[in-house]
Design a protein that fits this description.
The protein is mostly beta strands and 99 residues long. It has one domain: OB fold (Dihydrolipoamide Acetyltransferase, E2P) (Beta Barrel), CATH 2.40.50. Helices cover 4% and strands 47% of the residues. The strands form 3 sheets. It has a 4-stranded antiparallel beta sheet, with no helix packed on it. Strands 7-6-4-9 form a 4-stranded antiparallel beta sheet, with no helix packed on it. Strands 1-2 form a two-stranded antiparallel ribbon. It is elongated and about 55 Å long. The N and C termini lie far apart (45 Å). The mean pLDDT is 91.
Length: 99
């Protein structure tokens, strides 16, 4: 039996194993660009320390024989590039950090 606290009132409850071992929600970092689909990094167009503006293409991700231009979501400076050209990436993998 577990206890849960709602508005400073403690209740006894039975939590299922599925609930206890669920994948926890992690707030996404708005500074990190993630892969929208799995694919191959064809070209990285920026370097660490480069200044970018919102909408600038930072890399090209090829998926299903289509080139996807991944753009900066805000103005800033490229802090970290997590991938290399010709690297396979998974969906939601970190690609670039812009601060």
């Amino acid at each position: 039996m577990d206890k849960i606290n709602i508005d400073f009132t403690e209740y006894k409850t039975y939590l299922t194993k599925k609930f206890k071992y669920r994948k926890r929600y992690i707030k996404e970092d708005p500074n990190i660009i993630k892969a929208i689909i799995p694919g191959i990094i064809k070209k990285i167009l920026v370097k660490e320390g480069s200044k970018v503006k919102e909408g600038d293409t930072v890399l090209i991700l090829e998926a299903m024989k289509m080139s996807n231009h991944i753009t900066a979501e805000k103005d800033g400076t490229v802090k970290t590039i997590f991938v290399k050209e010709n690297e396979n990436v998974k969906r939601n993998q970190d690609l670039i950090e812009i601060i």
